[in-house]
Structures are given as structure tokens and as C-alpha cells.
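Input/output pair, single chain:
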Amino acid sequence: MRCTISSRRDLPTWLVVILSLSYPAVVYLAHRSWSPRVLALVLVFLAAVWWLRPGVVPVSRGLIWGALLLAVLAIGLEDTLPLKLYPVLVNAVLLVVFAASLWFPPPVVERIARLRDPDLPPEAVMYTRKVTQVWCIFFTGNGLLALWTVLWGSEQVWFWYNGVIAYLLIGGLFAGEWCVRRRLMRAQHG
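Output:
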């Protein structure tokens, strides 16, 4: 049986997520064995995976073009530094998307909330705006820390922050927001 990708919709989203999350580990584990030019192909592959995922959206386009630019720089400079900037790029793209949605409503979190409940009450709309602002602050701080690890951290510090700690922080923010939302919903419903 032959497996081919006949359209963009054939690549499962979960595979894209796993490949994206594993990027820091791949770069960290392979940087001593593979040249930056070969490692750049990992970033090109990741950009292709983003391209093949269902529903290429502005976030994906920013990541695709940014990843390709970093790959070209890594090849041209024969250096891993551009490859290590990918987590910074991800935070920057997400910051731009979330911040832009505050100026050009509805905010990202409101759009997501309306998928589940199209008739959000006004207080829920205000809450989603605040959550979008919190994510903007998070992406700013996380991106700056990721940049610090690239410029001044060791290979191990870069990997542990970008490949483990940042994911734990994201999970913590999701969990914290979920707890706050549940508490607010309980207070509203008596």
C-alpha cells in the first residue's frame, strides 16, 4: 500500500503539533552530528509540514516564511544560530497575531470561545479580551527568554528552556486560565 499526500488536508494536525514540539530536541540532539546545512533541512521539513496541515492561516504563513528564512540563513552562514531562533520566531508571530486581534476585533480568544458558544455575554467578551492580553504578555516574555537562551545561554540552557520549560509554562497558563474561567462561571451561575 502506497501512502501519498494528495492535498493539504491529508496531514493530521496532531502530527504537525508533535513535529513542531520536538524541534528543539531534534536540533539539540543532532547539532553535534549534523552540519547546520543538514539541520536547516529539518526546519525546511517543518515549514513543509505546516504548509501541508489543514487550513493554512496567517499564523502558519508567518511561521512557514520565517522558518524558510532562518533555514536559508543557517545554510548561508553555516551556523546553527538561525535554527535556534525558531522558538523566538514562533513567539513573535503569535504575539503579532494576538496583539493585532486586539486592534482588529474580535480578539483571538473570543474567536475561539465563539466556536463553542456563539452568543457570548458581554462580560465573557471582556474576559476573552483580557485573556488575549495575558497571552500577549506571555508571548513577549517567553520570546525574550527564548532570545536570551539563543544569544547568551549554553546549548543545554537553550534546549531545556525552549524544549521543556516553555512548554510547561504554556501548559501552566492554559491550566491557570481554565481554573479562573471555571471559578468565574460558577460565580455567575450562583
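Residues 1-84 form one domain. The first helix runs from residue 13 to 30.
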